[in-house]
Amino acid sequence: MVKAVVGACWGDEGKGKITDMLAEEADIVVRFQGGANAGHTIVNDYGKFALHLLPSGSFNQNVTNMIGNGVALDIPQLVKEIEEVVSKGVPRPNIVVSERAQVLMPYHKLFDQYEEERLSDRQFGSTKSGIAPFFSDKFSKIGFQVWELFEEDSLKEKIKNVLEVKNLMLEHIYHKPLLDAEELYATCKEYAEMIRPYVIDSVSFMHNALKEGKTVLLEGQLGSLKDPDFGIYPMTTSSSTLAGYGAIGAGVPPYEIKEIITVVKAYSSAVGAGAFVSEIFGEEADELRRRGGDGGEYGATTGRPRRMGWFDCVASRYGCRVQGTTGVAFTVLDVLGYLDEIPVCVGYDIDGEVTKDFPTTGRLERAKPVLKVLPGWKQDIRGIKKYEDLPENCRNYIEFIERELEVPIKIVSVGPARHDIIMK
Ligand code: GDP
């Protein structure tokens, strides 16, 4: 059976922690979209890790971790992350890579940077990991699947063809140094040797695993609001962040995805540009940022301070809905223990009319938050293991949000460590 762990909003909800925890009972963990542009922070018995490409099952010896065909595969980054976890004493993780995954090329990062430079003050706030140019190439059919790295003659020919158009753009649009086909071919040969030990036929692998009754976890990156179709387009990412896309990006039948666990954070944070209705500023935001997550809300990939806000019921309910959520993991609740009162956004006022339905981006940008203030619990809840032992106002907060989400909260996370968890 297949379970998905995905994000409800902008990402950074704590999916890494939930996946690492659920991986204890899984056979296979699959990354099915995105690339190395976002990070998961995981705290477990081995220490604290910021993973970008490695699936979060990598700390579990019984788990096979797969990079699915839907991922932007940055080969040197993957190898670097494997060596990093090994050097910190983690047993060498079990990694396999789909032969149909596409390879992120060094020029994808360059084009990402050049385009942001060209856009100047209109830029997207890209992490410059090459993701947008990569996915443009994939769907323009000038990308490279992993298997192509091993086909010497056709690889040479294809590099020549692809660089023809890339160099026209470099020369005439960006005015940057041109790319050399021989050099890129040599890089591809290096990539081939780096990735060779991990490459598998992922379609047969997944088919057989499911036939044998294995448990598969699909690990999402970012969240619903960054999905290119249902998110805050165009301030989204370039590959689908939805559990449904797991069927494609991991290569499993859609009807096998039985559980969709959407990770919802007890307050909001976002990185990059784009509308953020419940955003807060100034000292109020600084304090939440400082206390947030595990050691503050700063990007795992870029170190950028995250934008902060109160819990947004409108965005989160929508985020859960487009995921097809069967259960919510409600995270980072412990952080709110310092507040006397906790505002939550329960509606959007758009042009004088209040709505609870998440709008398209133009109207979203005009939305003002309608806030409701709930009482705080003024207590440290880390270490609590039973739902009944949570302070009453804390349970009221959870249950209020559960009603707003219209899906059951099944897991409550009250600290960064693997076992700071309450099963509700
Ligand atoms: P992901 O990309 O969704 O995996 O999220 P990130 O790793 O970017 O952000 C989650 C951050 O919150 C990490 O630093 C986690 O260690 C931390 N975290 C996860 N769950 C909890 C929790 O329940 N309480 C606290 N205080 N921190 C948590």
Task: Note down, in words, how this protein is organized.
- The structure is a single chain.
- With 424 residues, this protein is α/β, with parallel strands linked by helices.
- It has 12 helices and 21 strands.
- The strands form 5 sheets. The chain has a 10-stranded mixed β-sheet with strand order 9-7-5-2-10-1-11-16-20-21, with helices on both faces. Strands 15, 17, 18 and 19 form a 4-stranded mixed β-sheet that branches.
- A hairpin with a 7-residue loop joins strand 20 (409-413) and strand 21.
- Helix 3 (106-119) packs across helix 4 and helix 5 packs across helix 6.
- The longest helix has 23 residues, at 152-174.
- The model has no long low-confidence stretch (mean pLDDT 95).
- The protein binds guanosine-5'-diphosphate.
- The site of guanosine-5'-diphosphate has 25 residues, from helix 1 and strand 3.
Give the SSE map.
Layout: E1 2-7, H1 15-22, E2 28-31, E3 40-44, E4 47-51, E5 64-67, E6 72-73, H2 75-87, E7 94-98, E8 102-103, H3 106-119, H4 131-139, H5 152-174, H6 181-195, E9 199-200, H7 202-211, E10 216-219, H8 246-251, E11 257-265, E12 268-270, E13 279-280, H9 282-291, E14 307-309, E15 311-312, H10 313-323, E16 327-331, E17 341-350, E18 353-355, H11 361-366, E19 368-375, H12 392-405, E20 409-413, E21 421-423
Parallel strand pairs: 1-10, 1-11, 2-5, 2-10, 5-7, 6-8, 7-9, 11-16, 15-17, 16-20
Antiparallel strand pairs: 3-4, 12-14, 13-14, 17-18, 17-19, 20-21
Helix pairs in contact: 3-4, 5-6
The chain binds guanosine-5'-diphosphate.
